[in-house]
Amino acid sequence: MEKILVSSRGVNLYYDSARVLKDITFDVMEKQVTALIGPSGCGKSSFLRCINRMNDFIPSARVEGEILVGGSNIYAGGVDVIALRRNVGMVFQKPNPFPMSIYDNVAYGPRLHGVKQKDRLDETVKQSLVGAALWDEVKDKLKTPGTGLSGGQQQRLCIARAIATEPEILLMDEPTSALDPMATARIEELVRELKKRYTVVIVTHNMQQAARISDRTAFFLMGDLVEYDATPKMFTSPEDKRTEDYITGRFG
Amino acid sequence: MDGRRFADMMMTVLSWAAALLLTGMVVAIIGFVVVRGYSVLSLDFLIEPPRDSMTRGGIMTPLVGTLQLVGVAMFFAIPVGVATGLYFAEYARDDMFTSILRLAIRSLAGVPSVVFGLFGLSLFVILLGFGPSLLAAALTLACLTLPLMVTASEQAFLAVPKDYRDASYALGASKWQTIRKVVLPAAAPTVITGIILSVGRVAGETAPIMFTGAAFFAPHIARSLFSEVMALPYHIYVLATAGTFIEETRPIQYGTVLVLLLLVLGICSGGIYMRSRLRRLMRR
To answer: Over the stretch A122-140, which tens digit does the pLDDT of each residue have?
Structure first.
């Protein structure tokens, strides 16, 4: 039984007077992988950043419409943005571990939210690293700098850091674009594993990646949501001509 | 040979000559001081106070005085300077008010040090009634070094990659949590380098302290913030121009110059070395 977890209702995003997203309306299903695809500048990353309100940091950005997460509008007045971000984790394009130890990277979120007991932190760090398929590689060097790992390992460390606050939703903004094919394959495998416990929304430039790992795909073009459907249908018989042109590589 | 090649060669020769001249001057200055001063240098010179109208003994009192001045000045300058740098890098909005503040600080950096001396005299010595003292002189030095400190720490905070901040905010951190746990630790090495360079600058200043607390002679080291202190730069000035037995004190004078030079050069090259090491580390 599919259940809606994130629901976008007529979302418009403006940077000053420029309208970057136009009336975006669609639902993200719980414990599925939803891919956002489209050419550069189409608004897919901007939309992703609406879901955890990271656009708040851009002074010129303004959001209209509603995004419901678990039924409540995150753009309503008085929303606790800190609690929201704890529930909606994010992994960025470039692996960005903090310049601290592997352990402290993963423990960062739980510590922010008040976990102090060492045994609880130890357990969370271990579970998160296991969950990010990194534990076996780093269990003997948890005190060494996270920045000393390879690019792919750093990105898995960032995933471990994101799931350490036990979010429901994981946002991934082109998480493999800075990685080599081997590291990319490992992350893709991990994403398939992650959806057993988390709802994943992933922005990707790579259409094969969207086809391989996602359950549903949303195609963005110049701020519009052109088409949104089950991934197999999107890649075999899209309704819209523009979707077809894009996935067959005619532009973008 | 055509004109272009000739011009090229001339410019190469000229810039080489300029660089050589500059290097030569630095070597000459240091060489001159070393040759004149090294004969008096000894452990006793560093740990004995001046005696017999400063014609004998060492420079313990001004050496300790300089360290005291630097210490007290930094005690005030570091918190204010770093906090202001943090304000510019993290909190200031991009508006008129901020531009004016920035301009004010940049201009402060261009104010001659003797003007700081007069400012310290009227504010700390007279108006606030500290009298000529360690405290007044150190506060004057702190004012002098603030622009450097503010600029250095602002640059250090701005150099912390935005990626770190994004990651921290995305985990639900507040602005202050992000600054305290990520930005400050990441910027700390660069901020510390800036502080070391300011220390080097402050240790060698004469004009700001001569009206505000540097003593011609003090029988012992300052035991209170309100005592006058001897200081290396002012001691040199006294020995060279205002002493009673200028000829007799000449060797001591050059010895003092050598110690001050070594102190300042040592601190600054320590700072520069640290900066270059950190830059290499960052690039990795």
So the answer is: 999 999 999 999 999 999 9
Other CB atoms closer than 10 Å to residue B135's CB: what's the count?
Answer: 24
Domains and CATH numbers, chain A: 4-247 (3.40.50.300)
Angstrom distance (rounded) from CA A70 to CA A169: 10
Inter-CA distances, B165 with A155, B82, B181, Å: 16, 19, 10
pLDDT, tens digit, 9 for 90 and up, residues B205-222: 999 999 998 888 888 888
The partner residues of B214 in beta bridges, in order of sequence, read B229
Distance CA A136, CA B153 (A): 40
Q: Touching check for A114 and chain B: CB below 8 Å?
A: no
Contacting residues of A for B172, CB less than 8 Å apart: 82-86, 109, 112-113, 165
User: CA of A148, closest CA in chain B: separation in Å?
Assistant: 10
Provide CB contacts within 8 A for B280, sequence distance 6+. Answer: none
CATH class assigned to B43-283: mainly alpha
Partner residue opposite A96 with nearest CB, options B166, B173, B174: B166
H or E element: which one contains A203?
A: strand A199-203
3-state helix, strand, coil in chain B (%, to 5): 80, 0, 20
Q: Which of B164, B172, B181 sits opposite A96 (nearest CB)?
A: B164
pTM of the model: 0.81
How far is residue B107 from each of residues A3, A5, B89, B202, measured CA to CA in Å?
62, 56, 19, 18
Q: Where are the domains of chain B?
A: 43-283
DSSP, res A147: G
- pLDDT, tens digit, 9 for 90 and up, residues A209-222: 999 999 999 999 99
Of A83, A100, A112, the CB nearest to B171: A112
CA A93 to chain centroid, in Å, comes to 10
Which contiguous run of DSSP H or E holds residue B165?
helix B162-170
**Which amino acid is present at A16?**
D
| A175 part of contact set with chain B, CB < 8 Å | no
Contact yes or no for B254/B159 (Cβ under 8 A):
no
